[in-house]
Amino acid sequence: MNTKTLAFIGGGNMASAMINGLIEDGTEPSHILVAEPDETRREQLAARFGVHTLSDNSEAAHQADVLILAVKPQALKTVAKGLSPALQQHTPLCLSIAAGIRHASLQAWLGQDVPVIRVMPNTPAMLGAGASGLYAPGNIDAAQREVAEHIMRATGIAVWLEDESLMDALTAVSGSGPAYFFRFMEAMETTAQELGLSEKTAHLLVLQTALGAARMAMESTAPLKELRSSVTSPGGTTEAALKVFTEGGLAQLVQQALTAARDRSIELSDSLGGDE
Ligand SMILES: NC(=O)C1=CN([C@@H]2O[C@H](COP(=O)(O)OP(=O)(O)OC[C@H]3O[C@@H](n4cnc5c(N)ncnc54)[C@H](OP(=O)(O)O)[C@@H]3O)[C@@H](O)[C@H]2O)C=CC1
Ligand SMILES: O=C(O)[C@@H]1CCC=N1
């Protein structure tokens, strides 16, 4: 259980997912602050989670042991530079969850003496089923790493990357990944209805099948290929479907899609980074 005061800067989708996961894991809502400019959103967050909300980012920083930067990458430079004076007076550990914003940029914007760790979570964090990547440079000590890892492990699994450039790949795989599975499930659901199943039945069957397949993959030591093979009877129905995927270039399409996400992360770094 987390006992530090965590302050989120930005109370949007990913912050809400993390807050939900942290509270489910036992973090007291009184240990969570959210700085968010939109009043309606502040009211929603307070009502849903019982967390303290405020509109002043610097005030949140003053009260924080750990500050989690959860605004869009496009807003981060202004937000980070705005926080910098407050961080010179009181210096919490800062975690940035923004896609593509490099550590050197964060360090320059927040202040050279501020401890900063990059984290890439994903939305299943809300259920404690998240997958997070973390990157910290050499000036971050073991105790600070432990704090960051402890927070992220409260929302799921956490892996450290030694090479910051791999954050772009990790973002493409697990950060964005839930959306790919939702898209695939959407397509299955639509087709199931076209093939005559009711909306409700199609939805239920697709979701339960996705859950069952993911659980089998998690709980089995067999490689994915073997699990696939165990469903695929020679000359049967699965083989007929998989043949269509192969002939349609599924593997290449997945490769292109993940590479596009990785490249977009690099583009964000190049276009939104910079040290001024
Ligand atoms: N969504 C996801 O699955 C994931 C997102 N991320 C990263 O998380 C970050 C947030 O993404 P997401 O939650 O999807 O985006 P959202 O737009 O849902 O959340 C961002 C929040 O920040 C608020 N905000 C805007 N300006 C400020 C400011 N000056 N000070 C404080 N808060 C501000 C926004 O308010 P308003 O709407 O009023 O502008 C909004 O509520 C991004 O950097 C993204 O790369 C990382 C992993 C996964
Ligand atoms: O789409 C995005 O840019 C963010 C980062 C990973 C998931 N959502």
TrEMBL record:
Reaction catalysed by this chain?
A: L-proline + NAD(+) = (S)-1-pyrroline-5-carboxylate + NADH + 2 H(+); L-proline + NADP(+) = (S)-1-pyrroline-5-carboxylate + NADPH + 2 H(+)
Residues in domain Pyrroline-5-carboxylate reductase catalytic N-terminal? Answer: 6-90
The entry's NADP(+)-binding residues are: 9-14, 70-73
Q: Which family does it belong to?
A: Belongs to the pyrroline-5-carboxylate reductase family.
What's a GO cellular component annotated to this UniProt protein? cytoplasm
**Where does this polypeptide localize?**
Cytoplasm
Name of the featured protein: Pyrroline-5-carboxylate reductase
- Determine the domain of life of the protein's source: Bacteria
Q: What class of enzyme is it?
A: oxidoreductase
State the coiled-coil residue ranges: none
Q: In which pathway does this enzyme or protein participate? A: Amino-acid biosynthesis; L-proline biosynthesis; L-proline from L-glutamate 5-semialdehyde: step 1/1
Domain Pyrroline-5-carboxylate reductase dimerisation, residue spans: 164-268
Q: Which InterPro entries match?
A: 6-PGluconate_DH-like_C_sf (IPR008927), NAD(P)-bd_dom_sf (IPR036291), P5C_Rdtase_cat_N (IPR028939), P5CR_dimer (IPR029036), Pyrroline-COOH_reductase (IPR000304)
Q: Which UniProt keywords are listed? A: Amino-acid biosynthesis, Cytoplasm, NADP, Oxidoreductase, Proline biosynthesis
**Molecular function in Gene Ontology:** pyrroline-5-carboxylate reductase activity
* Record-listed E.C. numbers: 1.5.1.2
Q: Which HAMAP family match?
A: P5C_reductase
Q: What does this protein do?
A: Catalyzes the reduction of 1-pyrroline-5-carboxylate (PCA) to L-proline.
Which Pfam families does the UniProt entry name for this protein?
F420_oxidored, P5CR_dimer
Which organism was this protein described from? Thiolapillus brandeum
Supply one GO BP term: L-proline biosynthetic process
What residues bind NADPH, as annotated? 57
